[in-house]
Amino acid sequence: MQRAALLVNELTVDWAHGRQVAPPDTGPERRAAIQEALTAAGLPRSESLSPAHADRLAVVAARLRPAFGAGARTESMIEGLNQLLVRHAAVPNLHGHPDGPPVLAFHRADASLVDAWTADAATALAMVIGVGQGARLRSCEATNCERAFFDTTRNASRRFCGLSCQNRAKASAYRLRRAAGTD
After folding, report:
1. Domain count, the chain
2. Per the database record, which ranges form the Zinc finger CGNR domain (predicted)?
């Protein structure tokens, strides 16, 4: 789930934290953005990620983007996820390194990096939606922020991608109340 949101945020978002951002538009820029985001999220960098992979992942991120939103799931969004699952051969599979225990993944052990990441991300989104928790796949509600996130709060009430957007929204609401004389 974390990697799905990371790809969407790094490769498709035009507004983040109140600022207009330009998604990277070349393979090397996309690769660098993904690597930096992986590091920032505490995930291992992928040295096998090439600029060509990053370009293909940008297409995938655009297909994953509609799953993150507060509204109802549309048939076209569901069909898009189903197409990704089929095209990238999503199938439960146990595999891992010889030194460690096997891990459950949703791609073949010999899958390409793009197929592996896409199958895992699309499966994670499909599982969340399939168990009735699709409302937890959200987009930030702050003005000028389109970042995607997975709401892990107990009552599914998270509205913002992070503290900076929450603080901006609360300060803006306070200024509006103050200007209206209701505070």
Report:
1. 1
2. 136-178
